[in-house]
């Protein structure tokens, strides 16, 4: 089973990445 902290770190990086990319997609 996954180590919770690693999954949470990945999820946090992914959501912050999406937050930075989404405005660019909206702009296009």
Structural write-up:
It is a single chain. The protein is an all-alpha fold. The protein has one domain (1-28). The chain contains one helix and no strands. The chain has one helix spanning 4-27.
SSE topology:
Layout lengths: L3 H24 L1
Shape assignment: rod-shaped
Written as H for each helix and E for each strand, in order along the chain, the element string is H
Cα-to-Cα separation, first versus last residue: 40 Å
Mean pLDDT across the residues is: 85
**What is the structural class?**
mainly alpha
Indicate the multimeric state. Answer: single chain
Sheet of most strands: none
Describe the structure concisely:
With 28 residues, this protein is mostly helical. The chain has one helix and no strands. It has one domain.
Overview features:
1 helix, mainly alpha, 86% helix, rod-shaped, 28 residues
